Amino acid sequence: MRGESPMAYGSSVSADSHVRLDVPAFAADPHRVYAGMRRHGPLVPVELSPGVPATLVIGYQVAVEILNDEQHFPADSRRWEKNASPDCPLVPMLGYRQNALRTAGAEHKRYRRTIIAALETVDLHRVHDAVARAAEALINSFCERGTADLRTDYAFPLTFRVLSELMGFPEDAAAAAYQGMAAMLEGVGAEEGQQRFVEALIEVVQQKQAAPGDDLTSELLRHPDGLDLMEMVNQAALLFSMGTEPACNLILNALLLLMTDEQYAGEILSGTMDTRDAIDAVLFEDPPLANWCVSYPRQPQLVGDVWLPADQPVVVSLAACNNDPVVGGDRRGNRSHLAWGAGPHACPAQPLALTIASQGIDLLLDALPDIRPQIPVRQLDWRLGQFHRALAALPVRFPACPPMRLA
Predict the structure, then answer these.
(1) Taking CA 248 as the corner, what is the angle to CA 242 and CA 253, rounded to the nearest 5 degrees?
(2) How far apart (Å, rounded) are the C-alpha atoms in residues 135 and 373?
(3) pLDDT tens digits, one per residue of 180-192
(4) Angle (CA) 194 233 246, round 5°
(5) Residue in 250, 243, 240, 239 with CA at minimum distance from that of residue 150
(6) What's the whole-number average pLDDT of the chain?
(7) DSSP code for 391
(8) Which residues is 303 bridged to in the sheet?
(9) Domain annotation covers residue 211
(10) What is the pLDDT of residue 277?
């Protein structure tokens, strides 16, 4: 609540609100946790992991202000990282990187323009073809069984194959990069995962330096800003990591909605709604990156009536902000959600991500229109993680059928 005078950090929040975001209870039902936080206002002190304090932004308007104020809320984490514990599991995930996500000012603008220039070369017709080939092969690998886990059998390998092709990653390098990225995201073996991730990408970049191709990695190398080896590795890492895991989770969360919500499924089948509307519903309710857009104020910042400490992460809860009761209303055709971020760090790859997700969903439902979850939604497991909203598995059943041609 807003008072008449500024308060010390956290003075408006009781001790029981220092919520841990890396525990099973949060992963299982984050919206219940957000609802409990709301009585304390739009800014809530949390722990990202033991001994790693942060502020979670759960108010939509406050989030928009912070996301558009890079001067006071820069994404450069070097000062936080300098004071972090040597064994902090989040340093590989949140630490400084020479990329468009973890820098500010002129450095950020330089890296962002290289990524935007590379993305502008992507032919979405080529992306359609890549998704169609991957979807056909994957669906035909399980359609005769009548059962599948849509995470391991479809959504993950589909996004992995498509991004690997677009980035120009050989299969073995892409697999090593993904394994390292997953360890960093979940905080389990994060340091080793980071090393594996970097080594795989160094090898890819060096191969492209010797023999450029028609792919995003080569386009980054061609940019006139002339990125050096580690700058290249960091930009390629950002494109690959943000293109695989979040896209996979977006597909799964949207499929879950379409299989369990008769309104959305019925209207899509009848043609009164398209897949994009269902995707936007998921981006409002359960965006794949639920808590993200991290910034690190260099001086204490007064927001409303609360002082935020210097050099401590400020994390925007995209999921909580999207569902802020203050901005509630009809969401049909409404794309005001913050799932892509906002301001100077807004995601520049939205058309690519939406193409992969919507076509991947359409092809699966066209091929297997009677697909249904094997277990009740309440029994599904959600993966641990402070930042993502990700199903551990999505087991489904459907009438078995022979292989088919989709592409």
Answers:
(1) 120
(2) 19
(3) 777 666 656 767 7
(4) 65
(5) 250
(6) 90
(7) B
(8) 306
(9) yes
(10) 87
* Strands of 309-365, DSSP E: 314-317
The total domain count for the chain is: 1
Domain that holds residue 102: 15-397
**Distance between CA atoms of residues 193 and 182, nearest Å:** 8
In whole angstroms, what is the distance from residue 373 CA to residue 377 CA? Answer: 8
Residue 144 lies in a domain: yes
CATH number at residue 250: 1.10.630.10
The one-letter code for the residue type at 325 is P
C-alpha 389/C-alpha 383 separation (Å) is 7
Greatest pairwise CA separation for the chain in angstroms: 69
Contact criterion met (CB below 8 Å) for 11 and 3: no
Q: What is the pLDDT of residue 3?
A: 37
pLDDT value, residue 31: 96
pTM of the model: 0.90
Instruction: Please name every residue paired with 302 in a beta bridge, in sequence order, or none if there are none.
Output: 307
Q: In whole angstroms, what is the distance from residue 139 CA to residue 182 CA?
A: 24
| Side chain identity, residue 181 | M
Domain presence at residue 72: yes
The pLDDT of residue 239 is 93
Tens-place pLDDT, residues 146-162? 999 999 999 999 999 99
Which ranges of the chain have pLDDT less than 50?
Answer: 1-8, 10-17
